[in-house]
Design a protein that fits this description.
By secondary structure, the protein is α+β, with helices and mostly antiparallel strands. It has two domains: about 100 residues, Ribosome-recycling factor (Topoisomerase I, Chain A, domain 4); about 70 residues, Gyrase A, domain 2. The protein has four helices and six strands.
């Protein structure tokens, strides 16, 4: 295998790993009956005119399986944090006692669990599409290399390697989705 095709395979694998990492981050945001600080990832608070991630204006901790608390560094941030959580429309209502914000997660119904599985599968489909797009781009680069002098056998071998890489990462996506579905549906 030439160094160009080896480099192409390595780049493609690195990009596919990033797709999997993104999927893992998105699946962590889907609540599966247990309270986790990652549920609030992506929420931003207006911190003196700057949109700031919620975990940078206060300490988020898990009290028990269905309760989160947010202890802001500054007391005047209680209202903006509360407002941010309400505007995020994630199905939870914060309770502000003047010192900390408590978030109680309601018990999940069967219907809500199915919705979350559907949402997880949607994220999985995004990851599969991303991996397939990376495969397509890599194969196009191999064909360009072939026009620039790469032998036909080397090109075919590289395409087979790219397909094996794709199959491996698609299987990894399926494994993550299966684990998340099991976690969500577990009562």
């Amino acid at each position: 295998m030439s160094t160009d095709t080896g480099q192409l395979l390595k780049e493609t694998e690195d990009l596919m790993r990033k797709s999997i990492a993104h999927l893992e981050a998105e699946l962590a945001k889907v609540r599966a009956g247990k309270a986790t600080p990652q549920m609030l990832d992506g929420l931003v608070v207006d911190y003196y005119g700057n949109p700031t991630p919620i975990n940078q204006v206060g300490n988020i901790s898990v009290v028990d399986a269905r309760t989160l608390t947010i202890q802001p560094w500054e007391r005047n941030m209680l209202q903006p944090i509360e407002r941010s959580i309400l505007q995020a429309n994630i199905g939870i209502t914060p309770q502000n006692d003047g010192n900390i914000i408590r978030i109680f997660l309601p018990p999940m119904t069967e219907e809500r669990r199915r919705e979350l599985v559907k949402k997880s599968n949607h994220e999985g489909e995004h990851a599969r599409v991303s991996v397939r797009n990376l495969r397509r781009d890599a194969i196009e680069r191999v064909k360009k290399m072939q026009k620039d002098g790469l032998s036909e056998d080397a090109a075919k071998d590289t395409e087979v390697d790219i397909q094996e890489l794709t199959d491996r990462f698609i299987a990894l996506v399926e494994k993550h989705l299966e684990a998340k579905e099991k976690e969500i549906m577990h009562v």
